[in-house]
Design a protein that fits this description.
This protein has helices at residues 23-32, 60-66, 77-90, 101-112, 126-134, 162-176, 196-208, 220-230, 239-248, 274-287, 298-310, 314-333, 351-354, 364-376, 385-388, 417-432, 450-453, and strands spanning 47-48, 94-98, 118-121, 138-141, 180-183, 213-216, 252-256, 267-271, 346-350, 378-379, 381-383, 390-391, 398-399, 405-409, 440-444, 455-458. It is α/β, with parallel strands linked by helices and 459 residues long. The chain has two domains: 23-52 and 313-458, Aspartate Aminotransferase, domain 1 (Alpha-Beta Complex), CATH 3.90.1150; 60-310, Type I PLP-dependent aspartate aminotransferase-like (Major domain) (Aspartate Aminotransferase, domain 2), CATH 3.40.640. The chain binds ligand F0G.
């Protein structure tokens, strides 16, 4: 262990047993689940790396704060505590809760996106993109080229390409661009951060055209930590100061609190502009709830207010990001192909390099996923040919994405480093006998978002 190695900055007060099944049981269970991880029961999973969303462990302070929740329909004290917490980090005075991130996205898109508009960003998350498209808008991913190269070790692979952004803004102007959206960290290419320099310049480009800059801030604390450790000039700044500097470049944000809020459910929007907030309140009243709760219980708003403080603590982030990096390093040392450098919340295995003998239409990343479950009871998520393939409307031929990835998302404060060692041991063992793995074929798929309910069979 290196001397600066940081063990878990907490000790365990309450435990949740996890159950190890037998290999034979898991073979049966995954077959019954149609080789789709979403159909497994959580109790049949030993280590669950499906997502880092809504899976965090709360602190004793958060549980204590829940007892102080104010469940008033209007004007709840919990709301005002949440508003203060959000405002002190973002500087945006108008804060509106929502039940989760996509609810905030729907409200913002319903107000601002109209038929034929274009919305540039580094790389929009799936639900965000879907809400833009439902309004007739065109989401544009303008990530720098390094962001799509799994071998590039660029420190800020979540940066937006500023030349492309400038061209889009000049070409379409503020009539057709309702806002620019930067997602921090960028989930769709592996939890990769954007630098403050890049964010500042993007904000200036947008401002020059009179266009607002918004942020999707599901993992803003992790992005701030990357800036702290990787960007010149921010070593002496606290994580909160860095987060404040990010928000100062923009005009508003949408948050899925299920990630860096350190809670199991929740979200919010926050804006500089009062009239935008007032319009959002109107939509909230008919969809989410009165603006001082917006779909959240008072106690949950209190837990979130506290979580937003804890997530900015340096010792928390050092361990959190260190744990993800620790798993990545064990895999890299054994030659396992992963996206480098690892992102903030997950390690992504490169399915095509892991199983070069399995063609993309036989879902190599999913083949690794199924084998990891059978061998180790580990649940992971394919983000590749199953999730992102697009069928040509005329020829019916599937177009597969460049990257066929398997995400090992690490829930916050849930697993110990020895769980990470267990996961690494199984991945490495599988990699050594990769030649024996076979692909899968899809036997059922629904018309939309097929990964959630499709069924597969081994070849
Ligand atoms: N934005 C980003 C960057 C996300 O990663 C997610 C969710 C959302 C918005 C939507 O938030 O789930 O609260 O409605 N990501 C989850 C994941 C589902 O597993 O990465 P939500």
């Amino acid at each position: 262990m290196p001397a600066d190695f940081l063990a878990e900055p907490y000790k365990i007060k309450m435990v949740e047993p996890i159950r190890m099944t037998s290999r034979e049981e898991r073979q049966r269970l995954i077959k019954e689940a149609g080789y789709n991880m979403f159909f497994l029961r959580a109790e049949d999973v030993y280590i669950d790396l499906l997502t880092d969303s809504g899976t965090s462990a709360m602190s004793q302070e958060q549980w204590a704060a829940m007892m102080l929740g104010d469940e008033a329909y209007a004007g709840s004290g919990s709301y005002y505590r949440l508003k203060d917490a959000v405002e002190s980090i973002t500087g945006y005075p108008h804060v509106l809760p929502a039940h989760q991130g996509r609810a905030a996205e729907k409200i913002v898109m319903d107000i601002l996106v109209k038929q034929g508009m274009v919305i540039p960003g580094n790389m929009h998350f799936d639900t965000t993109r879907a809400h833009m498209q439902l309004r007739g808008g065109k989401p544009l991913d303008l990530i720098i080229p390094e962001g799509l190269d799994p071998k590039s070790r660029h420190p800020f692979k979540g940066n937006i390409d500023l030349d492309k952004l400038e061209n889009v803004l000049k070409q379409h102007g503020k009539e057709k661009v309702p806002f620019v959206l930067i997602t921090i960290t960028c989930n769709n290419n592996g939890g990769q951060p954007a630098s403050l320099t890049n964010i500042k310049e993007a904000g200036e480009l947008a401002r020059r055209q009179g266009i607002p800059l918004f942020f999707d801030i599901a993992r803003f604390a992790e992005n701030s930590y990357f800036i702290h450790t990787r960007e010149e000039g921010y070593r002496e700044k606290s994580i909160k100061q860095i987060a404040q500097a990010i928000f100062a470049c923009g005009d508003g944000c949408m948050m899925s609190s299920k990630k860096d809020g350190l809670v199991n459910m929740g979200g919010f929007m926050a804006f500089n502009d009062r009239s935008l907030y007032e319009q959002a309140c109107q939509l909230s009243i008919i969809n989410e709830g009165f603006p001082t709760y917006g779909g959240m219980a008072g106690r949950d708003m209190d837990a979130l207010a506290r979580g937003l403080e804890e997530v900015l603590e340096l010792s928390y982030l050092k361990f959190r990001m260190g744990q993800v990096a620790y798993l990545a390093e064990m895999l890299l040392k054994a030659g396992v192909p992963i996206v480098e450098p690892p992102g903030g919340h997950a390690v992504y295995i490169d399915g095509r390099r892991f199983l070069p003998h399995i063609p993309q239409e036989q879902f190599p990343a999913q083949a690794v996923s199924v084998a990891l479950y059978i061998e180790g009871g580990i649940r992971t998520l394919e983000l590749g040919s199953i999730v992102f393939a697009e069928k040509d409307g005329q020829t019916g031929v599937s177009k597969y994405p460049e990257l066929d990835l398997l995400r090992l998302a690490i829930p916050r404060r849930v697993y110990t480093n020895s769980h990470m060692e267990y996961v690494a041991a199984h991945v490495i063992d599988l990699y050594k006998r990769r030649d024996t793995l076979k692909g899968l074929k899809m036997v059922y798929q629904p018309p939309v978002a097929r990964h959630f309910t499709c069924r597969l069979e081994p070849l």
